[in-house]
Amino acid sequence: MLKNDLLDQWDRENFFHPSTHLAQHARGDSPSRVIKTASGVYIEDRDGHKLLDAFAGLYCVNAGYGRQEITDAIAAQAKELAYYHSYVGHGTEASITLSKMILDRAPANMSKVYFGLGGSDANETNIKLIWYYNNILGRPEKKKIISRWRGYHGSGLVTGSLTGLELFHKKFDLPLANVLHTQAPYYFRREDLGQSEAEFVAHCVTSLEEMIAREGADTIAAFIGEPVLGTGGIVPPPAGYWPAIQEVLKKHDILLVVDEVVTGFGRLGSMFGSDHYGLEADIITIAKGLTSAYAPLSGSIIGEKLWKVLEQGTDENGPIGHGWTYSAHPICAAAGVANLKVIEALDLMNNARDLGAYLKGALADALGDHPHVGDVRGEGLLCAVEFVKDKDDRIFFDTSEKIGPQISAALLAQSQVIARAMPQGDILGFAPPFCLTHAEADIVVAATVQAVGAVLG
Ligand code: PMP
Fold first, then answer.
1. In 10 A of CB 243, how many CB atoms?
2. Which principal EC class is assigned to this enzyme (predicted)?
3. Within 6 Å (CB) of ligand 1, which residues are found?
4. Whose CA is closest to 204, among 185, 190, 191, 222?
5. pTM (predicted TM-score)
6. Nearest CA owner, ligand 1 atom 12
7. pLDDT tens by residue, 364-419
8. What values do phi and psi take at 42, rounded to 5?
9. Are 287 and 299 a contacting pair, CB within 8 Å?
């Protein structure tokens, strides 16, 4: 085994870490954290510290760590057939089985699954297919995509553009043309504090309608959104938001892409967020929970309406000019099949729903009256606590104070519990594996109370 010092040195010298302050890391100001093993909701670092992972990695290890059914399936597939491609009609039993399992569980009117590796490339696929679709339909000007401020859809060129967070645009020359951002359905951060929830929803709808009128509906191809805003702050939509938005989209013949990378396969306590909120998607993006991150796999579930036109397009133009080498990689597909079986055999989706309600309730009970806790919110096993400087007048802390990161760091240092400081605002996010128990939820809540006390008094 490598000595810690050498590992730290090699890490700093060689490893370009994503979403990391590169200069600080290279200077050694932020410690390398090397994870060695994991089981259930716990991960263990190289020094044997056990950390309770209340964010399931990057809200992806839904089945929990160390599931032998999944690792066995991966090993068996690697032995039998580690790889073959899926171009020109090729496939494997694992990839075909997984596409059938996904469609059997998907909302109505879904037709086919296109596999990718991660959420970003799946959303790139979606936008390309939507542009292809409108070209085949003879409306080449209908190409713009509307996303929301604070939406997160990836960090590629188009998907980083769709992501409505400044950090992902700044200095990268993004967003690209053809990407527009509209109002986030974030009631707690409404500008007009006097607005009721219903008035705020009406404001979101009006903003969207004004944007469509300004740009011209014949230039707008699609609207993309997560059922619950994730990385942008873990924000469930206000009541009535989705039905009202869907009505506008239908009126203007604008496709709906529902990004279920976080919500797909049970995190909200329903198989899909689309089921949860009654969304009628044209395309659904899936990733993370599809394999519980045991292997990288994503998918675009394509609705029947699009599929028909894509088929027509290939009759007119030849094979679809879009493919990844690792599309439907058999090892990843085998992980997906085993993962969905584990989730269902152990009834983990219902556990996610029940424990989510318990965790949110316990956080609200313990912290709701704290003078600097402005909001405790969540849906299913996805919740957040948002901190404010002044609760009565809802004044936020200055970002330079880094209150969210400080609380997350205190939580880790004092209690070995991981919750995520969300990237924009002082928001602590919780999205543990679905196998969380009541006792583990209690540990998370007690640790959070202690960390909040240490930073904010
Ligand atoms: N969409 C959503 C809703 C996500 O949360 C993420 C990742 N957090 C992505 C897309 C991008 O996925 P990936 O990082 O696998 O490319």
1. 12
2. transferase
3. 58, 118-120, 123, 152-154, 226, 230-231, 259, 261-262, 287
4. 185
5. 0.98
6. 119
7. 999 999 999 999 999 999 999 999 999 999 999 999 999 999 999 999 999 999 99
8. -105, 140
9. yes
